[in-house]
Structure to design on (681 residues):
């Protein structure tokens, strides 16, 4: 016989109490006076015998009552008689899917709550000496340890929804490795693997042969009552920049994954001071895009959200965004030997552009700090130091605009062009240099012209520099010549690089005196604003730039009224990057709008959950069985919980509850004691 709680056996010391009581009770005497003692002596001998028997029986009944009460708390059990000398160990492994799709409602409430309750029922039916391994998508260190029954109950109560998603084969491999580390797989052990999930197609199986000897698999599929969902898929602005009193056009993608067409679905938009409610029609199984326009009346950080009214799966009903309306753009112009004054003249027309001028030969790295756009104006030679400053500037999100002089050193320039993913400069071309087309499809020209037309009065260029063919895929030719060569190109990596394949000097034409040149300068200034992404998808985006200047040892917080998180920080040049790609980050971060702050607010960030779990499309029973088979499973018992009549758990042999017999025997001997006290007087 074994005991589930052997620590209670110390309570047997309580048996000393009735023994002591009875011993003192036997020593009690009462004096009686009679004239003749012969008759009394006979009666006394009979009474003593009866009383002695009564006390012994009461003592025995009390001892037995206390004995069985202690045994009831210790919970005795007998190991399986079918095993050999050493009892066969029993282990039940649970995977409780706590991804966001388990937020859907089943027949008895939320699927995750239903999964926890089914796991609890299975634990209740398990043998008393069974150990449990309970895992979730978190894969945390606390899930690597085998648990007792009480610990398993406590673990189930702590399982909450998580933004982390895992594939089924990833979970299987991880948990079997935990068993292998515990040396369970090499023992004579009965292992039952219970897999509680809705089995989303987005988290499918991959084939891998695992060690599944002596393991019985019990996939239990929990199905929602309504297999449909509507959610905000994404947001984006038509224009890439935000300016004071300029109109913003916000595009909203809403997906209806259900089979029914929905009409007048409420969508609530709240961004800073702008609030609006829309009612949209959503066709079944289709992505619908709707647009709203509004104007920012003040500068600063703007944050808000777009929400769709849905009462089924909730985590994806809101999408958060934030951006900054800047007061100005900071520009540094590096003048070379053939610099033109037109650049300074254009930027001085609008206070929005703050332009500083420095000689390209005397610039230092500190001059680049806090700038959005660097313009090289008419330089022929570029030192490697200046070129490296420009390369690093683009790597940290800055923009550069390159206007070579009349006689550029091609080695100097091509080193820079190659590093910023632009086509290299070659020999001069003097024919076919009339401007031919503008690339209206590129975001650079979006909203610049009211109508696309081929009748623009384009300036002339007498000489250009041939751009090498086979440019990088990141290149975009914004202006092309009649000879098919590019005149003005851009390349987008971390920042943006613009290249003018000619010179602004009057010997090369009158381009710098044309309105198109002013348009290019102003547009480059607008697009060069150092802006953070409008939003971050938790788990997808690895680094988030912070352009504010802070101290090296100053911690940065992501915080709002209810949440405060300190991310890891890496610095490149003058830019700090917040790292949000650690597993612990996924577990802690929450969707919403947050401040980025040190001792003061220096920015904003909007976090959103991944929409991978938004489409409630699950595997069939056959596909689930095939998935487990592909991972080495041989013994598979499938259960599906989708209706009230289908609720079931694993049929686990349950040992006889000896503690209940002990309770009954305790009550019986208490009754016996009471009868002895009353009847044997």
């Amino acid at each position: 016989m074994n005991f589930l709680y052997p620590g209670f056996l110390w309570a047997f010391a309580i048996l000393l109490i009735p023994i002591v009581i009875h011993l003192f009770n036997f020593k009690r005497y009462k004096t009686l006076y009679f004239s003749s003692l012969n008759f009394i002596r006979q009666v006394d001998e009979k009474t003593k015998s009866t009383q002695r028997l009564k006390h012994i029986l009461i003592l025995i009944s009390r001892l037995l009552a206390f004995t069985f009460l202690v045994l009831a708390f210790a919970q005795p059990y007998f190991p399986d008689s079918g095993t050999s000398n050493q009892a066969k160990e029993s282990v039940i492994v649970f995977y409780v899917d706590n991804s966001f799709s388990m937020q859907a409602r089943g027949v008895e409430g939320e699927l995750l709550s239903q999964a926890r309750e089914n796991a609890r029922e299975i634990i209740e039916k398990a043998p008393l000496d069974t150990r449990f391994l309970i895992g979730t998508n978190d894969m945390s260190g606390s899930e690597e340890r085998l648990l007792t029954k009480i610990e398993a109950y406590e673990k189930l109560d702590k399982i909450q929804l998580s933004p982390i998603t895992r594939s089924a084969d990833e979970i299987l491999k991880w948990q079997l490795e935990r068993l292998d580390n515990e040396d369970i797989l090499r023992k004579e052990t009965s292992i039952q693997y219970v897999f509680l999930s809705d089995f989303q197609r987005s988290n499918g199986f991959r084939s891998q042969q695992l060690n599944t000897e002596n393991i019985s698999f019990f996939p239990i599929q929990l199905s929602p009552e309504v297999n449909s969902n509507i959610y905000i898929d994404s947001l984006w602005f038509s224009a890439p920049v935000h300016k004071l009193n300029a109109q913003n056009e916000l595009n909203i993608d809403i997906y209806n994954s259900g089979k029914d067409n929905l009409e007048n679905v409420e969508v609530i938009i709240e961004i800073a001071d702008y609030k609006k409610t829309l009612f949209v029609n959503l066709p079944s199984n289709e992505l619908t895009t709707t647009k709203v326009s509004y104007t920012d009346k003040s500068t600063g950080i703007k944050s808000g959200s777009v929400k769709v009214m849905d009462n089924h799966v909730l985590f994806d009903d809101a999408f958060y965004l934030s951006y900054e309306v800047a007061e100005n753009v900071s520009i540094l112009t590096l003048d070379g030997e053939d610099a033109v004054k037109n650049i300074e003249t254009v930027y001085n027309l609008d206070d929005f552009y703050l332009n500083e001028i420095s000689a390209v030969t005397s610039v230092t790295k500190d001059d680049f700090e806090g700038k959005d756009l660097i313009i090289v104006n008419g330089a022929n030679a570029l030192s490697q130091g200046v070129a490296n400053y420009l390369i690093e500037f683009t790597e940290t999100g800055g923009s550069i605009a390159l206007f070579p002089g009349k006689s550029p050193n091609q080695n100097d320039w091509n080193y820079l062009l190659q590093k910023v993913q632009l086509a290299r400069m070659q020999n001069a071309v003097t024919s076919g240099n009339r401007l031919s087309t503008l690339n209206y499809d590129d975001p650079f020209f979006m909203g610049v012209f009211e109508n696309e037309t081929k009748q623009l009065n384009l300036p002339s260029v007498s000489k250009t520099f041939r751009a090498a063919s086979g440019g990088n895929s990141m290149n975009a030719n914004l202006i092309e010549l009649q000879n098919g060569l590019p005149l003005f190109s851009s390349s987008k990596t971390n920042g943006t690089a613009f290249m003018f394949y000619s010179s602004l000097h009057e010997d090369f034409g009158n381009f710098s005196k044309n309105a198109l040149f002013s348009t290019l300068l102003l547009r480059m200034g607008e697009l060069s604003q150092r802006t953070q992404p409008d939003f971050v998808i938790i788990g997808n985006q690895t680094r988030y730039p912070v352009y504010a200047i802070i101290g090296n040892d100053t911690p940065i917080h992501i915080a709002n009224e209810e949440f405060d998180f300190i991310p890891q920080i890496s610095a490149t040049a003058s830019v700090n990057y917040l790292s949000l790609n650690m597993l612990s980050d996924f577990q802690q971060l929450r969707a919403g709008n947050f401040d980025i702050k040190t001792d003061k607010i220096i920015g904003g960030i909007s976090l959103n959950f991944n929409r991978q779990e938004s489409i409630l499309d699950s595997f069939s029973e056959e596909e689930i069985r095939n998935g487990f088979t592909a991972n080495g499973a041989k013994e598979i018992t499938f259960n599906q919980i989708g209706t009230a009549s289908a609720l079931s758990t694993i049929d686990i042999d349950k040992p006889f509850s000896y503690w209940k017999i002990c309770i009954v025997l305790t009550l019986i001997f208490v009754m016996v004691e009471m009868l002895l006290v009353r009847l044997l007087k």
In short: The CA atoms of residues 5 and 74 lie 5 Å apart.
